[in-house]
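Person: I have long wanted to understand how a fold can be written as tokens. Underneath my words sits a plain record pairing an amino acid chain with its backbone structure tokens. Those tokens are not coordinates but codes from a learned vocabulary of shapes. I should like you to check that the lines agree and flag anything odd. The protein I mean follows directly.
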Amino acid sequence: MPKPKKFKAKFLGNTIISEDKEAKNLYSKSRFGEPKEGKIQYSLVEGLYLFEKKLVNVLDWRNKKITLNGYIRKAKKLDANFWIRYIVFRDMRNRGYIVKTALKFGADFRVYDRGIKPGDGHAKWIVYPVHENSTLTWYEFSAKNRVAHSTRKNLLLGIVDDENDVTYYTVEWTKS
């Protein structure tokens, strides 16, 4: 498959938006972004992933290019957990999964099994990225597990260590 062509996008608020034809082509092939009003809208983690892969030039509202470090600084200001979320997103995408936001499910991400595209099937997991040093109460854990169960998805915890490696734990309901 030929490498997608680079395109331009703007960092506006807490999203990245592109009207470029190449962004639309990339969406149809790999489901990066979400089509909205004739444009493609990216989450902050999707935008950084495409930036790191050298598929997008990100511009600010004045049409000035944003550097990779500038992008990361801006994203961290908007989302305190951005880096941990990004590490899990990047790891899952590099493994061949399609990863989408899951805010309406009360989770960070929904993840589709390999070969399944949003719209063609349902996500298999909801994913919560956490740093290895963070704590989670039983109440918080139970709430996450209930969200997964009520949406008929498996709960996947993505634990990020200090070296930015990710270990995944699946939580499933069993009947006795």
